[in-house]
Amino acid sequence: MPEDVDLPHYLRMIAAAIAALAGLYYLLSRRGKDAFTSADTEASISSSDWRPALDRHSSVPRHLPENPFSGSENLADFCIEIEDAAKASALMSRAVGLIYFEFPKLVSGAATGEASIGALADDFRLALRPTDHVALLGQDQIVVVVCLLACRKDLETVASRLSAAARRRGAIEEGAPSLPVGLAMYPSDGLEGQALIDAARKHYRDLWPTKEKPETPAAGG
Questions:
Q1: CB-based burial of residue 191 (10 Å sphere; 0-12 exposed, 13-18 middle, 19+ buried)?
Q2: Buried-state track 148-157, b at ≥16 Cβ within 10 A, e below 16
Q3: Could you give the CA distance from residue 9 to residue 18 in angstroms, rounded to a whole number?
Q4: Spatial separation of the C-alpha atoms in residues 218 and 75, rounded to whole Å
Q5: CA 144 → CA 23, 80, 172, distances in Å?
Q6: What local confidence, expressed as pLDDT, does residue 117 receive?
Q7: What sign has the CA pseudo-torsion 157, 192, 132, 115?
Q8: Cβ 130 vs Cβ 148: under 8 Å
Q9: Which is higher by pLDDT, 196 or 40?
Q10: SS3 (DSSP) at 154
Q11: Cβ count within 10 A of residue 219
Q12: C-alpha angle 155/158/161, rounded to 5°?
């Protein structure tokens, strides 16, 4: 150090430079910390609000949390259970559909082998989700309730699978429509269980305009 330099002034300059560097370091480190904290907070918020997008393969539940169907043969009970299933499916942004069949061949004994309406109903149950339901109405009618549908196309896909099972048992005659069933969906075809059954039955019978259908027997008790 030159002898003519003012030592106190020199030390003050060094101290000011050190203070300036320390302040700059603090600002830079704080900015980085704030950016990290902000990003972390945003990630936390977005993660708490995130919900998986529903898709047909990974997010649609395989069954309802509770089975709304009791297996009661009482038609009034069955209609209420259809409505309960529709409401439960709606909570999951899904719909309920009905598939209606008539199998006079099984009742008349014209079908080959030992096919019967009860055995066919069991075949249907094996092809469905645990909280879907198969109900027998009258002697030759089956109504299938399918829950957690994304769209009508899904209902048609299930109906096609069940129709194939019925054909294997000889329950559907040759020359039948490719989808020989009546379909109805909540809420487009009705808001009540009985209205949905009626809509599915009407759709079925509209497919067979040249066939005379018997009067529907009273179902349930």
A1: exposed
A2: bbeeeebbbe
A3: 14
A4: 9
A5: 75, 15, 16
A6: 87
A7: negative
A8: no
A9: 196
A10: helix
A11: 18
A12: 150
Q: What six digits make up the tokens of 148?
A: 């957690």
Q: Which tokens in the block code for residue 80?
A: 């209420």
Burial of 131 (0-12, 13-18, 19+ CB in 10 A): buried
Query: Which residues, other chains included, contact 80 with Cβ-Cβ below 8 Å and sequence gap of 6+?
Result: 193
- Of the ranges 53-57, 63-67, 122-126, 178-182, which one carries the lowest mean pLDDT score? 53-57
Residue type, 119: A
User: Hey, CA dihedral for 204, 205, 206, 212, is it positive or negative?
Assistant: positive
Q: What is the pTM of this model?
A: 0.67
Sheet holding 182-186, edge to edge: 133-137, 141-149, 95-102, 182-186
Closest CA to 143 of 98, 176, 187, 105: 98
Given a cut of 80, whether residue 91 has pLDDT beyond it is yes
Torsion, Cα 9 13 14 20, to 10 degrees, reads: 160
**Which helix (DSSP H) or strand (DSSP E) does residue 17 occupy?**
helix 7-49
Look up residue 180 and give its two tokens.
Answer: 């020989």
